[in-house]
Structures are given as structure tokens and as C-alpha cells.
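Support request, priority: normal
Reporter: lab tech (M.K.)
Component: structure prediction queue

Hi team, I submitted a job for DUF4175 domain-containing protein from Brevundimonas albigilva yesterday, and the status page still shows it as pending. I've pasted the exact input below so you can check whether something in the sequence is tripping the parser. The sequence length should be 59 residues. Please let me know if I need to resubmit or if it's stuck on your end.
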Amino acid sequence: MRPPHWLPWLGPLLAAGAGALAGEYWLGGGFWVVLIAALVCGFAPIVAYRIWKRMHHRS
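Reply from support: The job had stalled in the queue. We restarted it manually and it finished. Here are the results:
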């Protein structure tokens, strides 16, 4: 089974959502907490797509 071609495009949407949630609920950490949450959640779909694609090519 191939990974969905739209999976990497979820990154910006997830980054915005994670940044908004981190700003709303974890604002005690300030700017850095929001930035780290947005970066991690923004790059997660891209990394997952690459791993899925690499595993698919091996089989």
C-alpha cells in the first residue's frame, strides 16, 4: 500500500493547530514552547511520509 500523496501537506495545518493549542494551554512556557510544538507537529507528517515511502520501496 502506498502512502497518501497528500500526507506531507498536513504539516502546515498541524503546525498551526499545535501552535494554537500550545499557546492556549501551555502559554506558561511562552514563545519557545509554541515554536517547538509547531515545528515538531509540522514536520511529523513529512517524516512519516518519507518513512512510509522508504518502507514501501524495500518490500
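The chain has a mean pLDDT of 80. Residues 31-58 form the longest helix (28 residues). Let us know if anything else looks off. Ticket resolved.
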